[in-house]
Amino acid sequence: MEPRRKKYPPSFKAQVVLEAIREQKTSAELASHYQIHPVQIRSWKAIATRQMADLFSRQKKKSDPQKDKQIQDLCRQVARLKRELNWLRDNLALSRKERVSLIDRESIEIAVCRQAELLGISRSSVYSYNQRSGNKREQQLKRQASA
After folding, report:
1. Which end of the chain is more exposed for a tag (fewer CB within 10 A), N or C?
2. What pLDDT is stored for residue 77 in this prediction?
3. Which letter, b or e, does each residue of 68-98 get, where b requires 16 or more Cβ atoms within 10 Å of its Cβ?
């Protein structure tokens, strides 16, 4: 069985890094105390010291009311489209054969698998229906030719 990587919570990492920054103990001493590899401690310390300047230079980001409004509008639109799609699925009173015939295999905008999903039919039935109907057409043409 493969050994799993250990995941440490951010609070633990912060505690170890603070002690490493204080330099009261060596990396080896901290490593033996916390049961972590010394390279890991040095890596966390390097990350912390690189990002330290950003902590003080960042200004509080103000919420953008226009962006918030746009997000709310998009959420409303998604919810409305979901309701309409569910309504359409519930009220689409067509037989499976009729729904399969609605599939447009040449459509670039909506893939065949998505069309099938929207109509509530399996994608495989679309292909099998087209193969069967193609065979029937061929049989009709053969009958007409022989008659």
Report:
1. N
2. 95
3. eeeeeeeeeeeeeeeeeeeeeeeeeeeeeee
